[in-house]
């Protein structure tokens, strides 16, 4: 067991709980709207941003967040212009941002300076600053308010974007807002769980919640709870067995997902069983 | 004369296509009218309905409820009930039937105002009228094809629309359910003057009370008139390869 100063530990836990809940909240949108590659794309553009920041002697974290947010802001309009699903654009941008990141890293004078950028791939919950916690709390408040205030419109878009459009709802605007929110959440969570692992936190909790309920209200309540559980479980496991924090969180969240599949009422015959004939 | 739908020289071409799916369509539908659109598969019936609903970009004049669809598409869609063709959702879809019906009112109510008691009264009333109130708390993906079709019809009616666009609305319904929907449509036309456009490829699914039929073939309106006139026309013979004399 690792002994940590209590202030550092408390900050890490609050930051992690917020990131876990946030990623899981936006994860419901990402999973339901099949935006999985968007999460990938954001985290890797953040990595490219951090690499560029290191190359230009700018703050890598600030550059990472700027790159992720810029990608989030561009994805929606670019997909509208190209008339292709945002998922397809994200799938094309993902390897491109990865390639850019490696080009920037190659241009660095030595291997050590690239560590700041590489650390964003793995994350470090113990280096979370008070500012990070405040930013996460603000984003949590914004994401929750957005979801609550526009619940009925978001619900219709999540059910079927084209049918929502047929009901006079501006589906495209809501989809673009969701993509931007996803980008902001990924960018802010990078420092904690890392670019490679934030994706799992976004997808796993929402996928777990979707195994457990047919009611979208409950899915939106269960998912953040699962995210928090995954963080706390993973963090505890990491402290106990001296394992990397990000990896432990992902392993715990994957285990929770596997359990939800095994216990899912949706897969039982009877009450939640097959389609009516 | 105030028309619910007025099309002049309308053509709609899908992206990447060179040939329009519908071309040079001229059509006027009076308020309160029940119009059935028939035609063989791929004739352009759904394209016509989606063009009227402003879901597809088109050329020519498309006016609905006195307003241009091009300029007022989204606000008009809040007044138009639309039932798409063959709409089925996956069994695991995380939405209850009542929530899907309630979605029909969302555009009409507008953002930042939750659905109130009076909205839910309308939602429950249409669900009861269609006999699906007892399915309200069932996951929509677990319902049968016919039940899902009723949910989608209820969603369109929950909006209290001025114009109803129904694309193959009876395809999964049994005879009893079909009669219930037809009665409901008649009631809406009689009491509230709702205009109803029904698309069907199945000639036995032409709703009772239909006094006007249009036939679409190859993207063009080839016959327009009373059902018996259309059935007796050369255009009908050309489209279906036989003459129809009895209306069922």
What does this structure look like?
The complex is a heterodimer of chains A (277) and B (248). By secondary structure, chain A is mostly helical. In chain A, 80% of the residues lie in helices and 0% in strands. Chain A has twelve helices and no strands. In chain A, α1 (6-32) runs parallel beside α6 (130-149), α2 packs across α3 (60-82) and α11 packs across α12 (245-263). Chain A is globular and about 55 Å long. The N and C termini of chain A lie far apart (56 Å). By secondary structure, chain B is α/β, with parallel strands linked by helices. In chain B, 34% of the residues lie in helices and 24% in strands. Chain B has helices at residues 45-52, 69-77, 97-103, 106-109, 117-129, 145-158, 175-192, 227-231, 234-240; strands at residues 3-12, 22-30, 34-38, 59-64, 67-68, 80-83, 163-167, 195-200, 212-217, 220-225. In chain B, the strands form two sheets. Chain B has a six-stranded mixed sheet, with helices on both faces. The longest helix of chain B has 18 residues, at 175-192. Chain B is globular and about 50 Å long. The two termini of chain B are 32 Å apart. Chain A binds chain B through residues 32, 83, 149-153, 155-156, 159-160, 162-170, 210, 213-216, 219, 266, 272-277, and chain B through 15, 53, 55, 74-78, 80, 82, 84, 87, 89, 91-96, 99-100, 102-104, 106-109, 111-112, 114-115, 139, 141-144, 147, 159.
């Amino acid at each position: 067991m690792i002994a940590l100063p209590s202030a550092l530990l408390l900050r890490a836990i609050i930051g992690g709980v917020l990131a876990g809940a946030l990623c899981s909240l936006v994860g419901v949108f990402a999973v339901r709207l099949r935006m999985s590659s968007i999460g990938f794309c954001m985290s890797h553009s953040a990595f490219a941003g951090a690499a560029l920041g290191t190359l230009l002697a700018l703050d890598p974290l600030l550059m990472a967040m700027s790159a992720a947010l810029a990608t989030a802001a561009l994805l929606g309009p670019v997909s509208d212009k190209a008339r292709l699903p945002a998922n397809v654009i994200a799938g094309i941008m993902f390897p491109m941002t990865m390639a850019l990141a490696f080009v920037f890293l190659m241009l660095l004078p030595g291997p050590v300076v690239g560590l700041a950028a590489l650390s964003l791939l793995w994350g470090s919950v113990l280096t979370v600053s008070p500012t990070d916690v405040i930013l996460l709390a603000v984003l949590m408040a914004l994401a929750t308010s957005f979801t609550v205030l526009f619940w009925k419109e978001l619900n219709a878009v999540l059910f079927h974007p084209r049918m929502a459009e047929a009901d006079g709802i501006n589906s495209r605007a809501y989809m673009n807002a969701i993509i931007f929110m996803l980008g902001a959440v990924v960018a802010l969570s990078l420092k904690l769980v890392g670019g490679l692992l934030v994706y799992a936190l976004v997808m796993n909790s929402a996928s777990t919640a979707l195994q457990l309920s047919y009611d979208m209200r409950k899915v939106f309540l269960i998912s953040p709870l699962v995210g928090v559980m995954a963080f706390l479980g993973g963090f505890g496991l990491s402290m106990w067995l001296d394992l990397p924090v990000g990896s432990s969180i992902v392993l715990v969240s994957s285990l929770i997902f596997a359990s939800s599949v095994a216990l899912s009422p949706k897969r039982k015959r009877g009450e939640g069983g097959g389609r009516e004939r | 004369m105030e028309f619910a739908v007025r099309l002049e020289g309308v053509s709609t071409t899908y992206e990447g296509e060179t040939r329009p799916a519908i071309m040079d369509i001229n059509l006027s539908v009076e308020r309160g009218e029940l119009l059935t659109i028939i035609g063989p598969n791929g004739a352009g019936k759904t394209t016509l309905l989606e063009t009227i609903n402003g879901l597809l970009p088109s050329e020519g004049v498309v006016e609905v409820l006195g307003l241009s669809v091009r300029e007022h598409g989204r606000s008009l869609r809040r007044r138009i009930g639309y039932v798409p063709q063959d709409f089925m959702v996956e069994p695991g879809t995380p939405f209850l039937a009542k929530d899907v019906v309630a979605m029909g009112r969302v555009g009409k109510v507008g953002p930042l105002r939750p659905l109130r008691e009076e909205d839910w009264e309308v939602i429950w009333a249409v669900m009861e009228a269609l006999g699906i109130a007892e399915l309200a708390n069932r996951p929509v993906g677990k319902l049968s094809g016919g039940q899902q079709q009723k949910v989608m019809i209820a969603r369109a009616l929950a909006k209290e629309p001025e114009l109803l666009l129904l694309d193959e609305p009876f395809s999964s319904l049994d005879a009893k359910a079909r009669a219930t929907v037809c009665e409901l449509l008649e009631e809406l036309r009689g009491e509230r003057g709702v205009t109803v456009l029904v698309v069907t490829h199945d000639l036995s699914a032409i709703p009772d009370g239909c006094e006007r039929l249009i036939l679409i073939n190859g993207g063009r309106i080839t016959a327009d008139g009373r059902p018996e006139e259309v059935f007796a026309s050369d255009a009908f013979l050309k489209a279906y390869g036989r003459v129809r004399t009895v209306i069922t």
